[in-house]
Amino acid sequence: MHEDIKKIISDIKSLKIQGARNVAKAVLKALILQAKYSKAKNSKSFYDEIKHLSLLLADTRPTEPMMRNLLERASGYLYEKSREYKEKKQLNRLKNDFINEQKNYIKKIDEDAEKLFAYGARLVPDGAVIITHCHSSTVTGILKKAKRKNIKVIACETRPRYQGRITAKELAEAGIDVTLVVDGAMNLYMKKADLVLVGADSVTSRGDLINKVGTSTLAHIARMHDVSFYSAAELFKYSIMTFYGTREKIEERDPSEVWEKPPKRIKISNPAFDVTAAKYINGYVTEVGVIPPQSFFTLATQKLGVKIYE
Amino acid sequence: MHEDIKKIISDIKSLKIQGARNVAKAVLKALILQAKYSKAKNSKSFYDEIKHLSLLLADTRPTEPMMRNLLERASGYLYEKSREYKEKKQLNRLKNDFINEQKNYIKKIDEDAEKLFAYGARLVPDGAVIITHCHSSTVTGILKKAKRKNIKVIACETRPRYQGRITAKELAEAGIDVTLVVDGAMNLYMKKADLVLVGADSVTSRGDLINKVGTSTLAHIARMHDVSFYSAAELFKYSIMTFYGTREKIEERDPSEVWEKPPKRIKISNPAFDVTAAKYINGYVTEVGVIPPQSFFTLATQKLGVKIYE
Amino acid sequence: MHEDIKKIISDIKSLKIQGARNVAKAVLKALILQAKYSKAKNSKSFYDEIKHLSLLLADTRPTEPMMRNLLERASGYLYEKSREYKEKKQLNRLKNDFINEQKNYIKKIDEDAEKLFAYGARLVPDGAVIITHCHSSTVTGILKKAKRKNIKVIACETRPRYQGRITAKELAEAGIDVTLVVDGAMNLYMKKADLVLVGADSVTSRGDLINKVGTSTLAHIARMHDVSFYSAAELFKYSIMTFYGTREKIEERDPSEVWEKPPKRIKISNPAFDVTAAKYINGYVTEVGVIPPQSFFTLATQKLGVKIYE
Amino acid sequence: MHEDIKKIISDIKSLKIQGARNVAKAVLKALILQAKYSKAKNSKSFYDEIKHLSLLLADTRPTEPMMRNLLERASGYLYEKSREYKEKKQLNRLKNDFINEQKNYIKKIDEDAEKLFAYGARLVPDGAVIITHCHSSTVTGILKKAKRKNIKVIACETRPRYQGRITAKELAEAGIDVTLVVDGAMNLYMKKADLVLVGADSVTSRGDLINKVGTSTLAHIARMHDVSFYSAAELFKYSIMTFYGTREKIEERDPSEVWEKPPKRIKISNPAFDVTAAKYINGYVTEVGVIPPQSFFTLATQKLGVKIYE
Amino acid sequence: MHEDIKKIISDIKSLKIQGARNVAKAVLKALILQAKYSKAKNSKSFYDEIKHLSLLLADTRPTEPMMRNLLERASGYLYEKSREYKEKKQLNRLKNDFINEQKNYIKKIDEDAEKLFAYGARLVPDGAVIITHCHSSTVTGILKKAKRKNIKVIACETRPRYQGRITAKELAEAGIDVTLVVDGAMNLYMKKADLVLVGADSVTSRGDLINKVGTSTLAHIARMHDVSFYSAAELFKYSIMTFYGTREKIEERDPSEVWEKPPKRIKISNPAFDVTAAKYINGYVTEVGVIPPQSFFTLATQKLGVKIYE
Amino acid sequence: MHEDIKKIISDIKSLKIQGARNVAKAVLKALILQAKYSKAKNSKSFYDEIKHLSLLLADTRPTEPMMRNLLERASGYLYEKSREYKEKKQLNRLKNDFINEQKNYIKKIDEDAEKLFAYGARLVPDGAVIITHCHSSTVTGILKKAKRKNIKVIACETRPRYQGRITAKELAEAGIDVTLVVDGAMNLYMKKADLVLVGADSVTSRGDLINKVGTSTLAHIARMHDVSFYSAAELFKYSIMTFYGTREKIEERDPSEVWEKPPKRIKISNPAFDVTAAKYINGYVTEVGVIPPQSFFTLATQKLGVKIYE
């Protein structure tokens, strides 16, 4: 394997590369490098090389649907193309087409993010009070675009890792009025909120949202006060395995994140995520527009090119 | 003022004396000392001395209804007695009666706590999963009494000051199965809970509960899952001024509790309490028994000896 | 019957005298006049005179619990006193006592109202947005007292008779920031409201509120947004017959109030009141303090001197 | 022990005597018999005899709060009286007073029931559709009194023992329009119901209702449709031990009631009761009037003569 | 511009032409006239003429998605066709095709309405009590078709402009049993309702409904009683800009509609619309069938021929 | 008509053939037989024969959307093919194609069921407590597949016909931990449940579920406790007539099923089904995957090949 590809793999593993979009772009770059340095003699072995690397890349992060979906999409593209260019002499054309397709997609990831920010920013009412949780560059992207609307943001600190502080810092630096509060204070601030806006780790086929623990608590509290609850999520956040019934697993993280040196005999539970049912979500802000949660899987399926009826 | 009284006042102010019951007992001790060392020549000036000290003591903690109610009760007792023992030579008898009454009450505070613990422990179902918030010696008193029932406790860490850790430590040392979780995880654990049990800073005339911020979030989440929500509160936690319409003030504490050195331009809001409406509370565990929230003010009014119709 | 008494009766009937408190004071004045001009020869016939007049007065308004309760109270007082002063020569003393008692009560009605206003005003948070319905001098009394708190009032116009306009006018003249909206807009404004405050026609033994049609709609909408809902009601608004199971009757008023000359074949329903269940009410503001709806009947029963166990 | 008393005890045990009121009257009769045939030489040993019999009688039915409360009341009465009539020659007077008191109470049980029926009947709206569950002679007593109001009753059959059929039969014989439905159909009929009315096995200090399994399901469904839910319960149904925190135990009955000869390996759970939280109950219909669930314990405590503050 | 076209524009502006369908048909007629009288020399300039007129027509009513969608559709059709018929001599064929397409669509508007009425009428249960709000010819169209089902309609008067009276009159003339009530009485009548049926000003991409103020209040009250809530809306009511995140603006109308000559200092707020979230809506009745709110944008997008992925 | 076809028709009518899938397979077999023994001379008359038989078969069960949808699909297939093979000599090819298509579909029915079972089994959490109602081979198919997950099943007995016993027996024989309870006990067991899983008689265009009476009660109770509610339903359970507005009729079955020989004058209502609104359903488990209720009609429409815009 080429050194540059190894570097990408190790950077993802060591969290040097972070954020769903950055990871996705990095794995596409790895595929491009592989195509460039490939010594495959025919389309079959080229496809195998790419497929093999894809599996390695997918393993760098067990739960990143966006990256997995893009790797899947790339293999699918190559498979179709390789049937089209069957002849040997077409191998270079195949590689070039594959490289260009991935380059375009890298650009498209950022273009799609910009579209999503714009759609989200329009959704924010003038002078709105917005509650958010954890840190999501998709959410901060929207809020920065909506800055002119004179918004006020309440950021929950998001224990145990305080990602709410990252959100607060980023927004404050962008000149947005932001207040940090402890997670338990949600109910106190919800009364005056116009909107809850959170990111997404992944989205199930029923439109349920998998996101940082605390999200479902926030969504329940929003419902109690009939405040709108939106999640900003690219369609590639779709977790296709949930369509086939697989349950979302709730990762249990290291207890020391919650309490570094706890006294004996105290158990500490530190779940990474929770599930917010579609019924608590008003809509998803995506790169194609603002959609009801129940349509997420239809649109994502189309974008991924997955066929429902075989 | 006698040195021992000064010591009590400074110990309360410096938080050496903590917990609603301990503070209450300390101020009654101060009254006893005052009575012992009093140089008052007649019942009128004796009453004035006690009243004056009471006001000083009440000022040591602006929000401690239990202490305030007991000081009020002591003055009331003295006022009635001083009308009974009008003659000068009865002054010593008056002092003695007053001292004995306070001594009895100090004992009664602990006896009442024991009763409350017993009532609360009976309320806990066998094998119950109980969620609690913050630290309350009344709640831990109940849970320790209910230990034999094979209970499991989920303690919310209670940011910003992590009092949930004190609860977890105390229960673990008592051999109770306790799990500490971050506040945002409430909703995830509520599904399997049998009971929510919290303490009380004070209780309003409508039966609303003033308690550590996060309590009302917990109560709303409990309602969403139809889980019983109880608060353990001595009747002296009654905030009589709410009967006369005064709103509960939500103290705003130092932001450094939430984030010691935050970057610039980030506002931090750190409310100490929130209000849980009576409609979210199944009952209060008190020293006389387990009662509906709407009866709290009637029973507390009777115990305090306050007359509703003048 | 004395002319002045006849005048009072006709003024109540013709609505020259309006408002629960004014009507109550007027009937007590009528009793005083009767006592003054009475030619009764003994306490028995004096009692009969007063009782007879009471029934006439009660008939002037079929649904005014406050007036009825005060008439009932006056008879009860006279009955007890007449047993005390059995001898003939004590008749004048009896009349005088009776007259003084009623005079005191007339004064007390206004004093109680002032207390209620003060308790209610304390309950209003600083800078609060308050939604109200119909017109109630008890509500406007509170709001005027709370004016310094920099409140904003949303008055629902209260079709069909637009009493919301009276409220809006009275508050605007008092210098309060008031906005009039149509009744259907309730839900739109509830999101930003801190408090709903309405008056009371009567209160049942379960703590349910009988008030102008639209009140229960407002209460349901408040619950959907978890906004506090209070009613301002003197304890004499208690409808004792509901304790004995009698259902509240919903008066059906003239259809022309809704549409003066409707086309043919259209039915028009114009109910005067609706019932708001206790579970939607956070508390009642009364002359003794702010209480949970479930305590209304206990306190009212005590004030009225009704015995629960015969 | 006298044969007649033995007969009463065996009749209660063999279910020849049924229904809370009938059992209560039977045990009072047993006390009267004991007093008549007593050979006690002094008030102390008479009291011991009565107390001993009371314990035997209480054991005939482990869960009948009404009977237990009445036995408790009888002992209390005797204790007070025996202190009054200390002298030996007063023993007969003591016995007579005791007998008369119990006789009066037997009459009062029926008089109280009649009052309760009347209060309940007034509560039923004209032309109402009423859903009921299981069989309660208190409920059928009310419905028969309300017959003239042109009511329609939906009786849930109440598996496993079909007591709904007894209700349906009794009402049909009384000429009331009654429809029997399976328990699962509750939701289908709730949309058109005006009222749910059930009986009560016992009532806790928080106002929660212990009643035949299925009652809490009915109450939840009523809440979903905002239909009023009432329980008819004499104040003696109060379970005082719940005031002292003791949990209501849910009796598990014989599985053969559900399925006589089930195939192997199928577990059958057959709980006798469930608990309906006070927040789902609009009111209790009692012999003193219609009250909020939160007042049940206050009024019952007063009627029982229990002191809250010792 | 031709006089007949000017006439259409002025008739729409002066409200001589009213109702979403009538306005839509009028603007298509205007396009036909323009095509007939067009002096364009080539397809490019013909397209420009039509596009220019379309913008003028769209401006006659700022908020009429149906008209806007049809104008958009007409331009789209022309654009495609003009690429097909590129040659000059095909210009007449192009005009004719365009004219015929619009004529067909005018007919289709009415045919679609008829289909919608039929689908809606089937949805109405026999003997149903239906609550409606404001006036919508789509709703009255359905109700008239459902007349044989022996329905009863409750029409809310819909302050400030009393459009409920228009509904009541139209239905009464059609022989339907209709009762007019004030808007505040919603909650009183909901208990006995089977269905709420309203029209639609526009529908967002999330399936939210923009409609006359009071609609969201009605929807919340329906949810409280678990009564089905449907909106009748042609797919062309879809507001495509909400897909791209744009918020629905709530037009603020003239205060004199609420109170012609109000006293000084009273603010009057008169919002024209409110937003009912998809979660409160059971379904939309459309010309293709009865659909969940979440599918509205998918079907509307297909009908409009908008592509989601560019 | 061939004897074998007659046999199939009579077996369906006499309930010898039961279950939606078995009935569907049987009618396809009947079509195959008809094609085999057909004496039609041209494709037109062959189509007529098949269409005629389809109508006869559809009549054997008035409410079986799966069978109806498959018959409809078969006719549609034949219609298209017969236009393709117009020439006479192609008639045999047409018959063969038709027979093969039906044979394939019979196989596909079972394959689809297996897929559905697999998707559903993945959805079940490890160690889950699952509540179910009535008997559905689709539900038991899932549960048996999920057996290794160490599940516990609560089966409601499902009065009046006790189909819950069939479920309990089938699961117990498969070695699954199953507990049978009466229907009224739902609320008691819901507190500890992780999932409710039921079958489906049919599904409406809004995603509402038509299923055995008691299902909607279960769904409402699940919502009260925020427990997930899923229905297992093949896409062919789609009731297309609801798209066109037709209401689901609730069949009223024989009262003797509820009470064999009831006393006189008791009405018995025995509805077969009830309707569970989409808002109470988290998702449907189908043969293509787990989907939100709102997508059921889209996917079913595609599978059926129905065109939405004609």
Defining key terms:
homohexamer, 310 residues, alpha/beta, 7-stranded mixed β-sheet, 11 strands, globular
Report on this model:
Six copies of one chain form a homohexamer. Chain A has 310 residues and is α/β, with parallel strands linked by helices. Chain A has eleven helices and eleven strands. In chain A, the strands form two sheets. A seven-stranded mixed beta sheet of chain A has the order 3-2-1-4-7-10-11, sandwiched between helices. A three-stranded antiparallel beta sheet of chain A has the order 5-6-9, covered by helices on one side. In chain A, strand 10 and strand 11 form a beta hairpin. In chain A, helix 1 packs antiparallel against helix 2, helix 2 runs parallel beside helix 4 and helix 4 runs antiparallel to helix 5. Chains in contact: A-B, A-C, A-E, A-F, B-C, B-D, B-F, C-D, C-E, D-E, D-F, E-F. At the A-B interface, helix 7, strand 3, helix 8, helix 9 and strand 8 of A face helix 7, strand 3, helix 8, helix 9 and strand 8 of B. Strand 3 of chain D pairs parallel with strand 8 of chain F, so a sheet runs across the interface.
Task: Explain the layout of strands and helices.
6 copies of one chain form a homohexamer.
Chain A: H1 3-13, H2 20-37, H3 43-59, H4 65-84, H5 91-123, E1 129-132, H6 137-145, E2 152-156, H7 163-173, E3 177-181, H8 186-190, E4 195-198, E5 202-203, E6 209-212, H9 215-224, E7 228-232, H10 240-243, E8 267-268, E9 273-276, E10 283-285, E11 290-291, H11 296-304
